[in-house]
Amino acid sequence: MVTDRKIIVSNGSTSLELTSMPFAVENIEGFDRIEVQNVTSQGWDQDGAALLNSYVLPRDMSISGKIKADTTFQMQMLRDKITAVFLPKRKVTINHYYGGVNRIIEAYVEKTPKFEFTDVSVVQAYELSLLATEPYWRDESETLVPIANVVGHFHFPLRIPKAKGVCFGVKSPALIVNAYNKFEFVANGTVTNPQLFNVNTREHLKLLCKMEAGEMITVTTGESNTVVQRKNGIIKDYIGKIDLAGGGCTFLQLDPGDNLFRYGADAGEDMLEARIYYYNKYPGV
Questions:
Q1: pLDDT band at 178 (very low <50, low <70, confident <90, very high)
Q2: How does pLDDT run across 86-128, given as a tens digit for each residue?
Q3: pTM score of the predicted model
Q4: Could you give the maximum distance between any two Cα atoms of the chain, in Å?
Q5: 106-115 long-range Cβ contacts below 8 angstroms, 24+ apart
Q6: Cβ atoms 158, 227 nearer than 8 A
């Protein structure tokens, strides 16, 4: 069957398409379904069991295929190309393109590439073994949901006398928005203690700091929770600004479906913009 499937792998410095000659992919495993571990408890004389917890296990992945070369020297060069991508302790990004949809997953090398001779001297087989600690596939690019931003009305060449003039732009007052995980606070003036509140779960994140115009604070959640400040091209670690003493602060997560958030600040709320970035995640391709 003719297919438009493409598999491109990269470790940040070296990239390789495995579905393009002289390489070919014959079999892939672990690309589709994920394994779910259910933790249950069963009492004496109880029919069935009670579900205590459920979580997704890391994804085991493998790719096997063939390499075609005209000479042994060329074959060795092609083997080296594969080995250069799948190095120990290096994260590998796998791009899977099929049916006009490109999805991405990151994995680590479990075993360096294995090569075997075949009955045809110009063809050798290869086998790759990977482990994706974050088991979900995601979109190629993240989606931006602006909770509040400055909306311009129109603009034209104009000189306005001092202390006179008319407002041609307003700040969108949408304090609450549905968002389907990265959060950004952007200051257009002085802002004190920016915060984000999940209306559905009642969880919140508050930062004890004063922001000035042009300053940005980015909160990233996931495998590693980080808070960084960006100002005048300088990046600072701001994780110590989280309001731990106030209680209830947490790194907010997005749930599947609708998520309702409200942003705010102790002072200067009208000067604050808030944005949410997210990737759609998929259990398989």
A1: very low
A2: 999 889 999 999 988 899 999 999 999 999 987 777 899 999 9
A3: 0.70
A4: 86
A5: 106/132, 106/134, 107/59, 107/61, 107/131, 107/132, 107/133, 108/132, 108/133, 110/60, 112/83, 112/86, 112/87, 112/88, 113/79, 113/82, 113/83, 113/86, 115/67, 115/79
A6: no
Q: Is residue 38 predicted with pLDDT exceeding 70?
A: yes
For the record, the structure tokens of 116 come out as 């075997």
Tokens of 62: 């493998």
The pLDDT value given to residue 18: 94
> What residues contact 204, with CB distance under 8 A and at least 6 apart?
195, 196, 197, 198, 248, 249, 250, 252
